[in-house]
Amino acid sequence: MFTFHTLGEAFSELFTGMSVSVFMCIITGMMLVIIEFYCTSKGLIGSLGAVLIGAGVLIRMLFNGSFAVLFSMLFLIILILFAAQILMLATQKKNWLVHSLSIALQSSGKGSDYNYLKNLTGVATTDINPSGHIAIGEINFFVSAPEFIEKGSLVRVVEADGEKIVVKQISEYFISERTNSTTLTRL
User: Fold this and answer.
1) For residue 111, is it left (φ>0), alpha (ψ between -120 and 50) or beta?
2) Per-residue pLDDT for 95 more than 60?
3) H/E element, 136
4) At CA 84, angle to CA 139 and CA 159, rounded to 5?
5) Which of 1, 52, 101, 116 is the most exposed place for a label (fewest CB within 10 A)?
6) Are the C-beta atoms of 66 and 10 separated by less than 8 Å?
7) Which is more confident, 17 or 137?
8) Gap between the Cα atoms of 28 and 36, Å rounded
Protein backbone atom coordinates (compact mmCIF):
# COMPACT_ATOMS: atom_id res chain seq x y z
CA MET A 1 0.00 0.00 0.00
CA PHE A 2 1.35 3.42 -1.01
CA THR A 3 0.95 6.09 1.70
CA PHE A 4 2.31 9.55 2.40
CA HIS A 5 4.67 7.96 4.90
CA THR A 6 6.26 5.84 2.15
CA LEU A 7 6.40 8.94 -0.06
CA GLY A 8 8.36 10.76 2.64
CA GLU A 9 10.71 7.79 2.91
CA ALA A 10 11.10 7.83 -0.88
CA PHE A 11 12.10 11.51 -0.80
CA SER A 12 14.72 10.83 1.85
CA GLU A 13 15.93 7.74 -0.07
CA LEU A 14 16.06 9.84 -3.25
CA PHE A 15 18.61 12.24 -1.84
CA THR A 16 20.59 9.79 0.28
CA GLY A 17 21.14 7.44 -2.66
CA MET A 18 21.83 10.13 -5.25
CA SER A 19 25.36 10.36 -6.66
CA VAL A 20 27.07 13.59 -7.67
CA SER A 21 26.81 12.69 -11.36
CA VAL A 22 23.04 12.15 -11.11
CA PHE A 23 22.61 15.41 -9.19
CA MET A 24 24.70 17.36 -11.75
CA CYS A 25 22.82 15.85 -14.72
CA ILE A 26 19.44 16.71 -13.25
CA ILE A 27 20.37 20.21 -12.05
CA THR A 28 22.14 21.09 -15.33
CA GLY A 29 19.23 19.67 -17.31
CA MET A 30 16.69 21.72 -15.36
CA MET A 31 18.81 24.85 -15.76
CA LEU A 32 18.92 24.33 -19.55
CA VAL A 33 15.16 23.80 -19.73
CA ILE A 34 14.59 26.96 -17.67
CA ILE A 35 16.97 28.87 -19.96
CA GLU A 36 14.81 27.68 -22.87
CA PHE A 37 11.79 29.19 -21.10
CA TYR A 38 13.43 32.61 -20.96
CA CYS A 39 15.42 32.65 -24.20
CA THR A 40 14.12 30.31 -26.86
CA SER A 41 16.65 28.54 -29.05
CA LYS A 42 14.19 26.68 -31.28
CA GLY A 43 14.15 23.89 -28.70
CA LEU A 44 17.84 22.97 -28.85
CA ILE A 45 18.79 24.00 -25.32
CA GLY A 46 15.54 22.63 -23.89
CA SER A 47 16.04 19.30 -25.68
CA LEU A 48 19.57 18.99 -24.33
CA GLY A 49 18.20 19.77 -20.87
CA ALA A 50 15.50 17.09 -21.22
CA VAL A 51 18.14 14.54 -22.30
CA LEU A 52 20.29 15.39 -19.27
CA ILE A 53 17.30 15.10 -16.94
CA GLY A 54 16.39 11.76 -18.51
CA ALA A 55 19.99 10.53 -18.16
CA GLY A 56 20.06 11.57 -14.51
CA VAL A 57 16.77 9.79 -13.79
CA LEU A 58 17.92 6.68 -15.67
CA ILE A 59 21.26 6.53 -13.83
CA ARG A 60 19.49 7.00 -10.47
CA MET A 61 17.01 4.24 -11.26
CA LEU A 62 19.77 1.81 -12.28
CA PHE A 63 21.30 2.06 -8.79
CA ASN A 64 18.73 0.98 -6.19
CA GLY A 65 15.76 2.76 -7.73
CA SER A 66 12.17 1.97 -6.83
CA PHE A 67 8.80 3.17 -8.04
CA ALA A 68 8.50 5.50 -5.05
CA VAL A 69 11.94 7.04 -5.78
CA LEU A 70 11.02 7.45 -9.46
CA PHE A 71 7.72 9.08 -8.54
CA SER A 72 9.30 11.46 -6.03
CA MET A 73 12.12 12.37 -8.45
CA LEU A 74 9.75 13.12 -11.35
CA PHE A 75 7.35 14.95 -9.04
CA LEU A 76 10.14 17.19 -7.74
CA ILE A 77 11.51 17.91 -11.24
CA ILE A 78 8.06 18.73 -12.64
CA LEU A 79 7.24 20.91 -9.62
CA ILE A 80 10.47 22.93 -10.02
CA LEU A 81 10.03 23.35 -13.79
CA PHE A 82 6.37 24.31 -13.35
CA ALA A 83 7.30 26.94 -10.75
CA ALA A 84 10.01 28.30 -13.06
CA GLN A 85 7.53 28.51 -15.96
CA ILE A 86 4.96 30.35 -13.82
CA LEU A 87 7.66 32.71 -12.54
CA MET A 88 8.86 33.37 -16.10
CA LEU A 89 5.37 34.10 -17.34
CA ALA A 90 4.58 36.37 -14.41
CA THR A 91 7.82 38.36 -14.52
CA GLN A 92 8.22 38.55 -18.27
CA LYS A 93 4.67 39.65 -18.98
CA LYS A 94 4.41 42.07 -16.08
CA ASN A 95 7.81 43.68 -16.42
CA TRP A 96 7.74 44.12 -20.18
CA LEU A 97 4.06 44.99 -20.55
CA VAL A 98 3.83 47.32 -17.59
CA HIS A 99 7.11 49.04 -18.42
CA SER A 100 6.28 49.29 -22.11
CA LEU A 101 2.77 50.50 -21.47
CA SER A 102 3.84 53.17 -18.99
CA ILE A 103 6.46 54.55 -21.40
CA ALA A 104 4.03 54.44 -24.30
CA LEU A 105 1.30 56.15 -22.32
CA GLN A 106 3.64 58.85 -21.04
CA SER A 107 4.94 59.64 -24.51
CA SER A 108 1.74 59.28 -26.51
CA GLY A 109 -1.13 60.16 -24.20
CA LYS A 110 -3.35 57.70 -26.12
CA GLY A 111 -5.08 55.93 -23.23
CA SER A 112 -4.64 52.61 -21.44
CA ASP A 113 -5.12 50.21 -24.34
CA TYR A 114 -2.81 48.92 -27.06
CA ASN A 115 -5.21 49.79 -29.90
CA TYR A 116 -2.95 52.62 -31.04
CA LEU A 117 -0.28 50.04 -31.97
CA LYS A 118 -2.39 48.40 -34.68
CA ASN A 119 -0.67 48.50 -38.11
CA LEU A 120 2.57 49.92 -36.67
CA THR A 121 5.81 48.19 -37.63
CA GLY A 122 8.67 47.21 -35.37
CA VAL A 123 11.65 44.91 -35.07
CA ALA A 124 11.69 41.54 -33.29
CA THR A 125 14.28 41.89 -30.52
CA THR A 126 13.98 38.19 -29.64
CA ASP A 127 12.76 35.13 -31.49
CA ILE A 128 8.96 35.07 -31.26
CA ASN A 129 7.93 31.47 -30.72
CA PRO A 130 4.94 31.88 -29.94
CA SER A 131 5.76 34.88 -27.75
CA GLY A 132 8.68 37.26 -27.58
CA HIS A 133 9.59 40.93 -27.70
CA ILE A 134 9.55 43.64 -30.32
CA ALA A 135 10.69 47.23 -30.36
CA ILE A 136 8.59 49.96 -31.86
CA GLY A 137 10.74 53.03 -31.81
CA GLU A 138 12.54 52.79 -28.48
CA ILE A 139 9.69 51.05 -26.67
CA ASN A 140 9.73 47.28 -26.04
CA PHE A 141 6.54 45.21 -26.13
CA PHE A 142 5.78 41.61 -25.15
CA VAL A 143 3.93 40.10 -28.12
CA SER A 144 2.72 36.84 -29.58
CA ALA A 145 2.62 35.56 -33.14
CA PRO A 146 0.82 32.71 -34.89
CA GLU A 147 4.07 31.59 -36.56
CA PHE A 148 7.76 31.57 -35.60
CA ILE A 149 9.48 34.93 -36.25
CA GLU A 150 13.25 35.17 -36.17
CA LYS A 151 15.03 37.84 -34.14
CA GLY A 152 15.74 40.89 -36.29
CA SER A 153 12.71 40.45 -38.55
CA LEU A 154 10.49 43.38 -39.40
CA VAL A 155 6.98 42.85 -37.97
CA ARG A 156 3.59 44.55 -38.15
CA VAL A 157 1.06 44.66 -35.32
CA VAL A 158 -2.09 42.98 -36.65
CA GLU A 159 -4.11 42.81 -33.44
CA ALA A 160 -3.85 44.93 -30.32
CA ASP A 161 -6.39 45.06 -27.53
CA GLY A 162 -6.24 45.08 -23.74
CA GLU A 163 -3.08 43.21 -22.79
CA LYS A 164 -2.67 41.24 -26.03
CA ILE A 165 -0.49 42.26 -28.96
CA VAL A 166 -0.30 39.97 -31.99
CA VAL A 167 2.27 40.52 -34.76
CA LYS A 168 3.07 39.02 -38.15
CA GLN A 169 6.35 39.10 -39.98
CA ILE A 170 6.66 41.43 -42.93
CA SER A 171 8.25 38.82 -45.14
CA GLU A 172 9.87 41.14 -47.66
CA TYR A 173 12.41 42.63 -45.26
CA PHE A 174 14.92 41.48 -42.68
CA ILE A 175 16.93 43.74 -40.34
CA SER A 176 20.66 43.15 -40.70
CA GLU A 177 22.63 43.11 -37.44
CA ARG A 178 26.02 42.96 -39.13
CA THR A 179 26.47 46.70 -39.22
CA ASN A 180 26.07 49.28 -36.50
CA SER A 181 23.29 50.95 -38.43
CA THR A 182 19.97 49.32 -39.16
CA THR A 183 19.65 48.37 -42.81
CA LEU A 184 16.67 46.79 -44.50
CA THR A 185 17.47 43.98 -46.90
CA ARG A 186 14.89 42.69 -49.37
CA LEU A 187 14.66 38.86 -49.22
Assistant:
1) left
2) no
3) strand 131-136
4) 35
5) 1
6) yes
7) 137
8) 12
